[in-house]
Write a structure and sequence with these properties.
Layout: H1 22-26, H2 28-32, H3 44-73, H4 77-101, H5 106-110, H6 125-134, H7 149-160, H8 164-174, H9 181-184, H10 196-207, H11 213-244, H12 256-262, H13 269-277
Helix pairs in contact: 3-4, 3-6, 3-8, 4-11, 6-7, 10-13, 11-12
């Protein structure tokens, strides 16, 4: 009978005393010892790992979107499309993670909720950086980070920078589209205000995709990102609703009601409005 084992190949490195190792390269000792529950409740480990892995995916998403933004600034839209395809998969991972947390019942969460104190996902500075990157600008969102000079500086810099959408509008302006000056030369720390002229530009782009292919494809990539971001927000809200109902959040917010209001925010308003304005070929 064939043995139910696999012979260790002689070429496999087993003397690693002076070599880089898998665990060392990934700094697994630091990562796997970073889960420090504040209670003895079994499900607190799930809660911690869920949020730590989400932060890792957000770090990668920021890394990728930063690269995409640089391509847009250099008028290399096609080079950014591969990045957006990767971002789509990252967003899918973030969305699906809520399913794991949803296996925790309200009773199980209440056993350790008090251990969280005032800590809240609202305080995630990487989430805030993602929102700034996508255009949800509000100087008040810096307030929870005043006590950490490094984080506050990191976010303040991102708040003042043009968002991905701002850079796309700048690209369109450089390529001859009639983008109003006030849409590309403004205080980028403030929320973007939609403009009818931008809707008209996107109507031309969508009605003539063969003429404006790169701009057309970029517009759809941005819509993809926003739709998945909103689905992520919605799943977050429903997970919170499922576990704590309408209790106040640990960070002091109204909880589910506060998360519901986030679903009303739009990153790229004209890209959604233009769909209503598009005309069939015979009506142009």
């Amino acid at each position: 009978m064939k043995p139910n084992s696999r012979e260790l190949e002689k070429s496999i490195h087993v003397d690693l005393s002076r070599q880089e190792t898998y665990g060392g390269y990934l700094q697994l000792d630091r990562i796997l010892h970073s889960q420090t529950p504040r209670s003895t409740v079994h499900d607190e480990m799930l809660f911690i790992v869920q949020h730590q892995t989400s932060e890792l995916w957000m770090k990668l998403m920021l890394h990728e979107l930063d690269a995409a933004l640089e391509f847009v600034k250099r008028d290399q839209l096609e080079a950014s499309f591969k990045i957006f395809s990767r971002v789509a998969h990252i967003q899918r991972m973030l969305f699906e993670q809520w399913a794991v947390l949803e296996t925790m019942t309200p009773s199980e969460y209440l056993q350790f909720r008090d251990a969280l104190g005032r800590s809240s996902g609202f305080q995630s500075y990487q989430y805030r950086a993602l929102e700034f990157m996508l255009g949800n600008k509000d100087p008040n969102l810096l307030l929870p980070h005043r006590q950490d000079e490094a984080v506050h500086g990191f976010l303040a810099k991102r708040l003042a920078q043009p968002s991905l959408y701002d850079e796309f509008l700048r690209y369109l302006s450089r390529h001859g589209f009639p983008v109003p000056k006030e849409c590309v030369e403004r205080d980028f720390t403030q929320p973007y205000k939609k403009h009818d002229a931008i809707v008209a530009i996107f109507r031309d782009v969508y009605e003539q995709p063969e003429k404006f292919w790169d701009a057309y494809e970029m517009a759809e990539k941005l819509v993809d990102v926003e739709e998945r971001f909103q689905l992520w927000r919605f799943r977050h809200m429903k997970t919170v609703h499922r576990i704590i109902g309408h209790k106040q959040g640990t960070g002091g917010s109204s909880g589910v009601t506060f998360l519901q209001r986030a679903l009303e925010l739009t990153f790229f308003p004209e890209l959604w409005d233009v769909r209503t304005e598009l005309r069939s070929p015979g009506a142009r």
